[in-house]
Amino acid sequence: MTALGRYLSGTRIGCADLPGEEAKLLYGPIINKLSKTLVGTMPEKLDVAIVHTMNRYSEISRIADRPVLIYDRYAGQLLNTLTRILYWSQDVRTSNRFFSKVFAEQAILAGDLTGGMAGALAHVQFQKFWNIRPAGSDARVSLRVRLQEVFIFAHEFAHAMMTASEEFQKSTRAIGDLLTEPRDGPKDRGAYKFFQERYPGRQTFKQWKQLGEAEDAFVTDHRELLRDEVGCDDFALHMTLVTCLSMDESPEYAFEAAFLALRNIRALAYIRRDANPASSKLPHQNTTEFRLLQVRQHRLRDAFRSVAAVYSIEKALDGFWAKLQDLSDLHDRQIDYPLLATTLSSFKRVRRQLMKDKAVSQVRDVFEVAEWLGWDPAAKSVNYVLL
Ligand SMILES: [Zn+2]
């Protein structure tokens, strides 16, 4: 086994065999585009390994003194399923089926087999409510999924590039600095009027203004971290837009995809946190992780403007902001609300009940749980494809 293979098998749980050719077909063209964009900056020593693991987590590691980007395609599968739920789910039990599976996997990874069992049993119960078509049955939905994958992949790739090339790091940070500069507004009554018209009675002007100020203070305190994240988001947005335009599609799809990718990753973070009994008990919205994602989303809107200017497609943003707000509301209704208000709280309850059950508290083997999730134990080892 190679050093990378040993590292992966020691840190991850594989959950499906990786079809090598398919991964090459999917990511090969993206890497080609990236190499063309980064001509002169692209370091020779940067490996990209595609894996498919329950961790649903990408990382940059150093193996045998070479930086390697480990990109987890199972995260892409999450973008796929959440997007189909977003547009097509008509019954909260449909989304519960998927959320419970992810909850079970994340609990297992956190070493909590009882939580894993709670999720797995719920998953089985909700099985019959699953009636969502494959993304491939609708060209618009499959385009939206594809572009989100490009965004997430390019974001991770940018992080890897930052560790491999000083020049790239400098330019990405410069953009990140610009996008995290303290802003003068919008804290005025005019901007509040827009908000109030859309969401009457949700916040008073004072509350609304205070939230804006709290975010500014948070940005100031976390600028070091944020500038890298926002800089990589900006790079990923360029790549998503280039991909979208090369397919002769409206640039709106690229902007939407970047926005949705961050919202979907946030949903995964909600589950990951609640599935781990060791997580802090703070409400989600008060943790640094969520506030970072929140700020990234807000600053993404500034990146839309600057990227649109670079490609001279400012007109694409006319009327786009209201559509983006509709999309955000749809995501609240279809994903975040059912996830936070029903699924996660009921799992915590089920977990408490199960802990009292002797048969369940004696579950000692991951595969006892995994069987309920329809997992193939033979896929336990982690395969990878090097691009
Ligand atoms: Zn990042």
- Helix amount: 55-70%
What is the spatial order of strands in the main beta sheet?
2-3-1-4
Structural class assignment: mainly alpha
Shape: globular
Mean pLDDT: 85
Distance, first to last CA: 18 Å
Low-confidence stretches: none
- SSE topology string: HHEEEHHHHHHHHHHHHHE
Count of separate structural domains: 1
Hetero groups bound? zinc ion
- Count of extended strands: 4
Content of β-strand: 5-15%
Query: Number of helical runs?
Result: 15
Largest sheet: 4 strands, mixed
Radius of gyration computed on alpha carbons: 21 Å
How does this structure look, described?
The protein is mainly alpha-helical and 387 residues long. The chain has one domain (3-386). 68% of the residues lie in helices and 5% in strands. Helix 6 (139-164) crosses helix 7 (166-179) and helix 7 (166-179) crosses helix 10 (223-246). The radius of gyration is 21 Å and the shape is globular. The two termini are 18 Å apart. It binds zinc ion.
Secondary structure layout:
Layout: H1 3-11, H2 20-37, E1 47-51, E2 59-63, E3 66-72, H3 73-88, H4 92-109, H5 113-126, H6 139-164, H7 166-179, H8 189-198, H9 205-221, H10 223-246, H11 251-275, H12 288-310, H13 320-356, H14 358-361, H15 366-372, E4 384-386
Parallel strand pairs: 1-3
Antiparallel strand pairs: 1-4, 2-3
Helix pairs in contact: 3-6, 3-11, 3-13, 4-5, 4-11, 4-13, 5-13, 5-15, 6-7, 6-10, 6-11, 7-10, 10-11, 10-12, 11-12, 11-13
The structure holds zinc ion.
